[in-house]
Write a structure and sequence with these properties.
By secondary structure, this protein is an alpha/beta fold. The protein has 6 helices and 5 strands; from the N terminus they run βαβαβαααβαβ. Strands 3-2-4-1-5 form a 5-stranded mixed beta sheet. Helix 1 packs across helix 2 and helix 5 packs across helix 6. The longest helix has 17 residues. The radius of gyration is 16 Å and the shape is globular.
Length: about 180
Amino acid sequence: MDESHALYLARHGETDDNREPIRVQGFTDTPLNDTGRREATELAERVAPMGFVSLWSSDLSRARETAEIVGNRIDLSVRLDPRLREANRGRWEGRRFIDIEREEPERYAAWRSAPATFHFPGGESLREQLERVTASLADVRRSREIPALVVCHGGSIRVALCAQDPRGLEVFHRFEIPNVALVPL
């Protein structure tokens, strides 16, 4: 493990909704599918030798189950924190991105081109997500139970990375975070 990183973020495994064509999940509590469970098992094997002393997770089932599979392998209990959730994407949740792009082209373009000012219809902004995710990660650091593994969501990892970049949320869409990606922070 790179000793300069006290935290590692991991994205949950696959769900039926994050297979093409991708559906917006957000706060929707979508479970892992069989592929996602296999991916979580592979993540557990990758992180087993890394010496984590604490394990944290979003409370949404796709992240929680991924963390539980990892925790069983590395003998750590999972601490749940709802602040680690994906963005509340409001009325977009459950819809396919390709349909949103076709049916709401201006709003979709705003989402892709100006993430720092975008607000999901009936949901939250990425700034709100960034504030709650970074507050949670600050609490993990303050716990001094590090190195720590935090299992969460692609958007949550992206906002955490944006918080470290001087360009902020404007670089949100530049980060590719595949299922069970492991990202040092």
